[in-house]
Write a structure and sequence with these properties.
Length: about 400
């Protein structure tokens, strides 16, 4: 019987490499690499973080999607949601005839139109166990690009459920990755999970662990972020920590420490080891990009430019890291947000999550601009953004690229 599940690609990397290079290569980024990540144009100096853009997991997911189109030129290909959170990359795939399945208002995917003749790509974030089982039942071909770092977290969460521990997940309960991670507890009867968004939410749970309180209020507070029937009175007796891989690594570690310390205060240090488990599943790529940004900010630039999808969790956290250092920061989705002719820049407002426009003059008088990008941002979009910033103040890279 012909295999219908593929996780290791199709051995077509040589065939798709020229197209990948044509779609995402950047001469500007290569220029920065040749010049130790620092390039000066006239009075303006750009500093590019040493780790930025596509990570291994994203590279792999994009390559597998391209390989899938090459392997199955005459079959309908669909992706369960976006392959990664970058509009440029997803638009490229749609231009290749690959359909993106969008979830409904209830955030569920409609697979009713998928047939056994179709090829379905699972994105880098993975899918829930329920969705995976639904697709397997259809008997369509499945190309699984789930990131290895995500799989490591899944294994940890699964082990918690197997051993009777509730998984406390630092993440966004609505995010595809966190939903897929949380679903791993369903492999075992009675598996439980609770998702905390940040330290403030973690402290609400910690307060209950140490001192008790109004469990009904917490149940309502976390109604969309907990497993069905979650009982705060009984399901926090033994807990294990996990995280969405794109969250701020430092915050994930701090939340894990806070839970461990709370259980130690309640039960004593010796007993705590039997009631709380922590993780070693911080995504190396997320950590490396955050660490590189911290190094860049040790000598703060006048302005930071963050390039990447507005719905990209790791990109938003890079922007938040800049603002936490009180550096003026503009998070743009791509170069199209920067209009040199008008002198304006459209960027994500961190307070509302909406796109706003900064008026002309937003970068006048600036001497240094730091640049980085989320793990789902291709090099060409980084390079294009740098070029447009330079053009906004009447500068050009032409002499450096000739």
């Amino acid at each position: 019987m012909e295999s219908t599940y593929f996780r290791k690609g199709f051995g077509l990397k040589a065939a798709i490499t020229p197209q990948i290079a044509a779609d995402y290569h950047s001469k500007i980024v290569e220029l920065f690499r040749r010049h130790d990540h620092l390039v000066t144009v006239g009075p303006l100096t750009f500093r590019l973080a040493r780790e930025f853009g596509f990570c291994y997991g994203v590279d792999r997911a994009v390559e597998y999607a391209y390989e899938t189109r090459t392997k199955f030129p005459d079959r309908r290909i669909l992706i369960v949601g976006e392959i990664i959170h970058n509009p440029h990359v997803n638009a490229k795939l749609e231009g290749m005839g690959i359909e993106i399945l969008r979830h409904g208002e209830d955030r569920a995917f409609d697979f009713s139109g998928v047939t056994e003749d179709d090829v379905v790509v699972i994105p880098a974030f993975g899918v829930t166990i329920h969705d995976f089982q639904r697709l397997r039942a259809i008997e369509c071909a499945l190309v699984d690009t789930t990131c290895g770092s995500v799989l490591n977290v899944w294994k940890r969460v699964e082990s918690y459920a197997r051993d009777g521990f509730t998984a406390i997940i630092h993440g966004k309960h609505w995010h595809e990755e966190t939903k897929a991670t949380a679903s791993q507890v369903t492999k075992y009867p009675g598996g439980k999970y609770l998702v905390v968004f940040d330290m403030d939410q973690a402290n609400e749970v910690i307060e209950y662990i140490e001192h008790g309180g109004d469990s009904a209020a917490l149940t309502e507070r976390f109604r969309h972020a907990a497993s069905p029937g979650f009982d705060f009175a009984t399901d926090l007796e033994r807990i294990g920590l996990a995280n969405q891989t794109t969250m701020l690594a430092g915050e994930s570690l701090a939340i894990a420490d806070a839970f461990r310390e709370a259980v130690s205060r309640r039960r004593g240090a010796d007993a705590a080891a039997q009631h709380v488990r922590t993780f070693d599943t911080i995504c190396s790529a997320t950590q490396e990009r955050q660490d590189a940004l911290v190094v860049l900010l040790e000598n703060p630039p006048d302005l930071m430019l963050i390039v990447g999808g507005y719905n990209s969790s790791n990109t938003n956290h890079l922007a938040a890291l800049c603002r936490s250092r009180e550096v003026r920061t503009y998070h743009v989705e791509d170069a199209g947000c920067i209009d040199p002719a008008a002198g304006t820049i459209r960027h994500r407002d961190p307070a509302t999550g909406q796109e706003i426009t900064a008026p002309p003059g937003w970068c006048e008088g600036v001497g240094t601009i730091g640049v980085t990008a989320g793990a789902s941002t291709p090099n060409n979009k980084i390079g294009e953004a740098i070029l447009r910033v330079a053009a906004t103040v009447g500068l050009s890279f032409d002499s450096l690229l000739s």
